[in-house]
Amino acid sequence: MSKYRTNGVKRKMRHSQTLIPTLKETPADAEIRSHQLLLRAGFIRQTVSGVYSFLPLGNKVLKNVEKIVREEMEKAGAVEMLMPALQSSELWKKTGRWYKLGSELMRLHDRHDREFALGATHEEVITSLIGEEVKSYKKLPLSIYQIQTKFRDEQRPRFGLLRGREFVMKDAYTFHTSQVSLDEAYEKMFTAYKNIFSRCGLNFRAVIADSGAMGGKDTHEFMVLSEIGEDTIAYSDLSDFAANIEMAPVNVSYEESNESLQELQLVDTPGYKTMKEVSEFLQLPMEKGIKSLLFKTDDQYVMVLTRGDHEVNDIKLKNALGVTEVELATEEETQQQLLAEVGSIGPIGVQKDIRVIADHAIAAMRNSYCGANQTDKHYKNVNVERDFNISSYEDIRFIQEGDPSPDGMGTIQFAKGIEVGHIFKLGKFYAEKLGAQYLNEQGKQETMIMGCYGIGVSRTLAAIVEQFNDENGIMWPQEITPYQVHLIAVNPKNQEQLDLAEQIYEQLQQNDVSVLFDDRKERPGVKFADSDLIGLPVRITVGKKASEGIVECKLRENGEQEDLHVNDLVERISSLIK
């Protein structure tokens, strides 16, 4: 029971004395289960779109998640501080993110017309602070974290706490003198994150990820498996391999065709643009086709080739090209560069200043078909090297279900996931931009190496509800629940019931069991419905057998119930909540 001790704080509450505004009907704008239940059970209320108040029950759950985070951060050697939410634009401009984050950054001006942002993240602030305060290698490595409200001006806030404009986040930062030191801290944080989400009871995967606007490399996302997740996870059915679909490498050995080369043939394909349309018109399988797409990078156009049944992965493409930006060329740009409409372009006869790169699958293809760079025309019997050249072969396609796992164990399956945590090896990017330097053992200045580690605390709360619910309401895991026991006096006007309920209320509290006592003068059906909706792990009902000292004990998780004498109750409840 020690993990539930409250340091002298009496964890009990009477329903009549708190704010739990439950709803019978589901709000019309609540699309997903967690949003619906957190509103109906009286845990949260929306103030404006994407901004929520945490009511007493919601705040308790939030604090319980924070408690787990703090305990695991301390085990990983991190110390807690608190940074300002209001941040000067000067720091963001030094790293270039003032412009890169665009309208997502909440911006404002003070009375002197100075520019500020409400903190979406704190890399700039912490790097500047450590750069000013830490000057010697003797103070490194250093691991610091905070739990704070963050702000992002989401274009379309949705799914309740999963995508809001104001949310609670834990962000940690580590500072090092060597890559080895960073690697060690990264492994500690990786373990801490696994412990945090395991203690929250979640079914999750740690997946290889893309660093995106954060910069750096070597990064993992922690994904809670859920059908409403906005990310797709590729994972092995026989091993621990898991990656965001954008980052999963393709490890396929393509068998080279041994068919003889056929003569190149130009054919009319009037009005047929997509691979599926051309495939059906030519009566050839899509895997015989070469899909050609024109992309714009930082400083040039690139034609990208994949097999007809594969899709270009723009994250892999960006990384393969070593560029910061990559986007599909518009129809007008494609027409201007290749003199043909989208859907009719191909690698044969492409002008020399357009680089042609291909996915590895292209090298094994024979007698394929592709666009002819003439509107409504395609080539048949196309063969690489004979008919066109490739600048380089790269892994630039999305992995598919059924592909072999990159680790050589099993095959790839897909699942949807909710991102609740993300860890990065940032390297020196922020430290170089903001002058975070230290004196090494020889007295020479060197730039610090950084790591960054974030958890969406309020998002984790919503993810828990997505996994722990049934048709009647929420089912809170033990370490997260706002109270461990829901005590109900069926008829508080009955003195025997009320007296026994009061006795149990005091006994449980004296044994460090947290209790929500429903003492309202409501119908039993309302109390039981609210109890299932709120979802505390154990319900004790004081009813008709109160005169015998008998109460009903019911588990929210599986509905199991038993009658217990009050003298045996504390011992039984203690065993249940362990």
TrEMBL record:
A single GO BP: prolyl-tRNA aminoacylation
Catalytic activity: tRNA(Pro) + L-proline + ATP = L-prolyl-tRNA(Pro) + AMP + diphosphate
Entries under PROSITE patterns matching the protein: AA_TRNA_LIGASE_II (PS50862)
UniProt-listed SUPFAM superfamilies: Class II aaRS ABD-related, Class II aaRS and biotin synthetases, YbaK/ProRS associated domain
Highest taxon, organism lineage: Bacteria
Pfam family, one: tRNA-synt_2b
Signal peptide span: none
EC number: 6.1.1.15
UniProt keywords, alphabetically: Aminoacyl-tRNA synthetase, ATP-binding, Cytoplasm, Ligase, Nucleotide-binding, Protein biosynthesis
Subunit structure: Homodimer.
Protein name per its UniProtKB record: Proline--tRNA ligase
Native source species: Gracilibacillus kekensis
